[in-house]
Amino acid sequence: MNTLLSNPKLQDIQEKIEAGERLSFEDGVRLFETNDLPFLGALAQQVRLRLNQKKVYYSINLHLNHTNVCTAHCVFCAFARRPDESGGYTFTLDQMRAKVDDAVKHFGINEVHIVGGLNPDLGMDYYTDMFRLIHQDHPELYIKALTAVEIDDLAKRFNLSWEQVLSQFKEAGLNGLPGGGAEIFDEVLRRKICADKTTSHDWIEVHRVAHEMGMPTNCTMLYGHIESIEDRVDHILRLRALQDQTHGFQSFIPLAFNAENTPLEKKGEPGGYTDLKVYAISRLLFDNIPHIKVHWTTLDLKMAQVALSFGVDDVGGTNLNEKIMHDAGNETPVDLSEAALRSLIEEAGFEPTLVDSSYGIDSPSPFMGEGRDGGKIQSNYSPHLSPPPQGGRKDGTENLS
Ligand code: SF4
User: Fold this and answer.
1) Pocket test for ligand 1, best of 63, 74, 326 (most atoms within 8 A of CB)
2) Residue closest by Cα to atom 3 of ligand 1
3) End-to-end CA distance of the chain, in Å?
């Protein structure tokens, strides 16, 4: 590493990273305490290049929020409406199909991302029919849907195990779970900001079950509200511990708190400095999750582009139609083109690489416009250079990729 970017107070951590050693809880706290952002960025970039070279992954994805009706009362949420409140909506299955059809035709999407509220009027059939119909209409699409919180809600309401819920959905066409609903794991804080939600323990266990069934998932952390540095490190290390056992997380996605229209509005939002620290330190603490993803709708496109030099190797997707963050005041585009996303990646000096959430696709989209490199897509896709962690999933499928 460039000696100009050395930091004598953190030299021991730098040596650990260069030797490929795991960082401890205390190391994580010390990294959050420093304001030496260039140093953190240089360290994270060293790891990011080792794992993912110059590649930046993206998908062409449609966000579908099938309902905003929700029985929970998370204080950071501007999206939900109570069952008896005005402004609630629920899409019919025909509406969902039409939205997917339209996005396939006009944008060439390769993935749908479906999450919504905990709507007490929707049964298992609504979801199994939804996945089956989307899969029948477009078998090439990767269907990533329902957070662990939604899976847990259905299991409780219909007296099913998490495995029974996931098995029915997998059979209907569900490919993997998104990482939402993790928020922050500290139990005291969790009771303050989302008391009705699945507990930290159960969130982790739902993902464990999914991984053991061979379903890849993502994981997230909501930061910038009332959590401390220690809460962030604790959250990350709980996820790291599960990943040691199951190897099923594909990416970690820090989610910046968007305050507008929420009861925490006066609290404000995290600044760019905190955003970049969280991304860089996440890359350094997660020695077993291959991808750090920026959900650019929680920041903005310019910050997301800068984050590519702070440990991030995945910009998520075009996020067509994203609603949850926009209901909280986010003003990023809802119809970003693939060409614009690729251009943003290339301007930062990286190689755009089209994938879905399996990270297994490497083919140009027929809908691609001319990017700055003439629309070429890099070949020889390899999600990460380091060997996969020891021990595979129970079904014998390959780890992580
Ligand atoms: S964050 Fe999710 S569970 Fe919480 S109120 Fe909003 S929609 Fe409901």
Assistant:
1) 74
2) 72
3) 29
Q: Please report which helix (H) or strand (E) contains residue 312, including its range.
A: none
79/68 Cα distance (integer angstroms): 6
Structure tokens at 284: 């350094």
55-59 and 351-354 as β-strands: parallel, antiparallel, unpaired? parallel
Q: In what order do the strands lie in the sheet with 61-64?
A: 61-64, 111-114, 142-145
Cα of 295 from ligand 1 centre, angstroms: 18
pTM of the model: 0.87
What are the distances in angstroms from CA 39 to CA 254, 331, 332, 380? Answer: 20, 31, 29, 31
Rounded distance from Cα 116 to ligand 1 centre (Å): 8
Return the residue whose CA atom lies nearest to atom 4 of ligand 1: 74
Q: Which helix (H) or strand (E) holds 271?
A: none
Domain layout of the chain by residue ranges: 31-377
Please list every protein residue whose CB sits less than 6 Å from any atom of ligand 1.
70, 72, 74, 77, 79-80, 117-118, 149, 194, 197
Q: Which amino acid is at 397?
A: T
The per-residue pLDDT for range 153-204, each reduced to its tens digit, is 999 999 999 999 999 999 999 999 999 999 999 999 999 999 999 999 999 9
**Per-residue pLDDT at 279 exceeds 60:** yes
Which of 194, 198, 202, 327 for mutating ligand 1's site (highest number of atoms within 8 Å of CB)?
A: 194
Substitution site in 75, 149, 156, 190 for ligand 1 pocket (most atoms within 8 Å of beta carbon) = 149
The hierarchical CATH code for the domain 31-377 is 3.20.20.70
Give residue-wise pLDDT tens across range 5-24.
789 999 999 999 999 999 99
Burial 218-249 (b: 16+ CB within 10 A, else e): bbbbbbbbebebebbbbbbbbbbebbeebbbb
165, 163, 132, 164: which is closest to 150 by C-alpha? Answer: 165
Q: Examine the pLDDT at 95 and tell me if it is beyond 60.
A: yes
Q: What angle do CA 324, 290, 220 make, to 5 degrees?
A: 25
